[in-house]
Design brief:
457 residues; UDP-N-acetylmuramoyl-L-alanine:D-glutamate ligase; Protein-Tyrosine Phosphatase, Chain A; 3 domains; ten-stranded mixed sheet; six-stranded mixed sheet
Length: 457
Amino acid sequence: MTEPRTQDSLGKVHFIGIGGVGMSAVARIMVARGVAVSGSDAKDLPVMAELAAAGARIAVGYDSSNLGDAETVVAGSAIREDNPELAAARNRGIAVLHRSQALAALMADDNVVTVAGTHGKSTTTSMVTVLLQGAGLDPSYAIGANVPSLGVNAAHGKSKIFVAEADESDGSFLNYRPRIAVVTNVEADHLDHYGTAEAVYESFDRFAALLPADGLLIVCGDDDGARALADRIRAGATTRVLIYGTAEDCEVRLHHGGPDGIWLSTPEGRFRLDLKVPGLHNALNATAAFAVARELGVEPELAARALADFSGASRRFEFKGEGRAVRVYDDYAHHPTEVRAALSAARSVAGDHKVHVLFQPHLFSRTREFAREFAEALNLADTALVLDIYPAREDPIPGVSSQLIAQYLQAGGRLVGAGGTAVSQLAAAAQPGDVILTAGAGDVTAYGPLIVEALSG
């Protein structure tokens, strides 16, 4: 990856695909920092009106004239080479940046905290941000999900701290230069980009190597991949490493599930956590946020209290409504580990009642690689309905369908081709006290409100 640019070197910036959650986040911060911003998208999305009100020049639809006198172009990952604006930018010799490169330019002069990992990035980044705000540090931040307690997913803060979610899916997290880097977990995923699990692990090694001599790598000791990363970095003695989690050797140790509730033990003492979000995985994410705050000099008692203000991130076990005393939640879970964690959280909320899940596989390649593992996770539910694969950026792969998962489902699990059928089946199956979860990275999120409506009808 190239060395990061600086904000001042960008000049006037045009965003192609500005309505995307990641693109709009970067644009929002640039506008707040006084950068001349323009942008376009194929559809007129609500965030574009917000950016226009803040001072950006916005166009709906793609046309080469939208570039104006832009000196830098930022192109979204879904933008094709034949896009008229991208083609015009290349013809004119305008610098074209990936979103991560533009974000790196914004962070060039800041004390950067990045959060990486196969799962939990958005939630942990959100927790760090909410905690630091509660401690009065007012960081800038860019998060890959909307956060209700923050109101937006990105903002320019008054301090020199910048908190950013670091996406490993396409290797773009290697564009950042953090001083504190969190790794929540390391598992084989995004093999459509990396090809092999070994290539995934190697990319995290390179990410950790970006830390300066006075930097800190914070890793989850409960995850085998993250712990192995910590061992490799410690062996090289290139930077400090802090391990958090439930094991005895963790410097910030989580105690979860006992009669005393959730609390952390550190060399400074013992601190109670009062969390509004359920599940061990969320408690671990909170522990990582606490460790970041500790490194930034926040008093431990204040850090622990501030975490109580976190109410969740969009599509991360997000409550969608209730009908007939059945609660409906939605989660972005699209990897077997994430599905297992989401269902474990649902089970903790349901108590002695049942858990029903509507799952939509995301990507043909991921379904092919993890079909059995998805089924094993879904079998934690009392009812598991599986929709057709959401293709996203991929073309179909011969022989790969949701049936690969369905064949391993136990009683209570089955394939449903149409979402409407699933809605009626789940509404009929659920009893008062039960929990229904919609899960997946595609458009399955739209079914949560429909299920609530069916339950209330």
